[in-house]
Amino acid sequence: MFRTVHTVYIGLNKLQHLNCNVQNVLTIGCVGQTRYRSNKHYKPEFKKLRSQKVIKVELPDYEKDKIDSEDYSPEKLRTRYKEKGIQPTRPWIERTTFINNTGSIIEPYIPPEGDGKISPISTAGAKQKLELLKKKKDTWQAIRKIRQNEEEFELYPEFITKAQDIYLKAHTTMANKDKQNLLQYVTEKAYVEMLHNIDNKTLRWSFIKSIEPPRVVHARVTDIITQDNLFAQLTVRFHTKQTLSVFDRFGRLIFGSDVIAKDVLEYVVFEKHIVNQYGMWRIHGKIIPDWMPPKEPAPVTNILNVEAETETALEAQPDEAKSKIILPDA
């Protein structure tokens, strides 16, 4: 009986407490109800443009960068770069280099003194032929090495015809000052030498004929940096008849002649990167022997000092007072 009365009492207390809570909620809701202004813009059509005005900037986390730099693990760096969309950099600095030509002439050919003038039947001519035969061994070894990389390589008449064609086109292009196409026929070393001191000048060059057929007199093959990187150089002897005339910027002739043709004996070095699939024969330089006499310098046009010339001319004039003849009175 006592338990039943206690249970009913607890239930009535809970019901009363619940009624008080409901009454308080209703009172607060009616009395304390407030309405706040909506955060929604009154023109929803420009919602996207308004959102683009605000730029979300990711501030750098220097503490995290410091931890990452201390813990230099490739996996963490790869994950971090992948999150930012950055391609990972290599830990070493490597730049590709391409060697297109050699910087000098390999074992340059020494032309015999009086070549082109001494008859081979004479004693001096026979001595020159004997010296050339001694040097043929290295030349044929170099040609054999060229044929190992180019199976279809032939000196006569294929290479000689190509060399003469390159020789003519290179000089014609130089006379026309076509700097863009000149590199197709000469190497970078010869390019600088051929274009040296031709600014403000007019060149007229013409090829007339070959006095003697061109022939290969020297051949060398060398490697650069690695043993597989091979360059070949062939020295070709040209004995031709040409005309050359050079005019300055005022149109005055300073060298050569358009009419008088001269016999020219030249030793032209051709070079090719034989291990390169797209390599081609180009002029690499010319051999000038030590026994050749130096050329006379060309006359240069200079601006005269007009004031000094005028003063000199005035001083040279005779004095009229001194040169006047005075006759005695009659």
Q: Indicate the low-confidence ranges by residue numbers.
A: 25-31
- What do the pLDDT scores average to? 79
Largest sheet: 4 strands, antiparallel
Classify the beta-strand content into a percent band.
Answer: 15-25%
N-to-C series of helices and strands:
HHHHHHHHHEEEEHH
Counting DSSP H or I runs of 4 or more residues, the number of helices is 11
Oligomeric state of the chains present here: single chain
C-alpha Rg (nearest Å): 47 Å
**DSSP helix fraction:** 25-40%
- Helix and strand composition category: alpha+beta
Report the count of strand segments: 4
Biggest sheet strand line-up: 1-2-3-4
Question: Which descriptors apply to this entry?
Answer:
330 residues; 20% strand; alpha+beta
Task: Give an account of the 3D structure.
With 330 residues, the chain is of the alpha+beta class. The chain is built from 11 helices and 4 strands; from the N terminus they run αααααααααββββαα. Strands 1-2-3-4 form a 4-stranded antiparallel β-sheet. A hairpin with a 5-residue loop joins strand 2 (230-247) and strand 3 (253-272). The model is unreliable at 25-31 (pLDDT under 50).
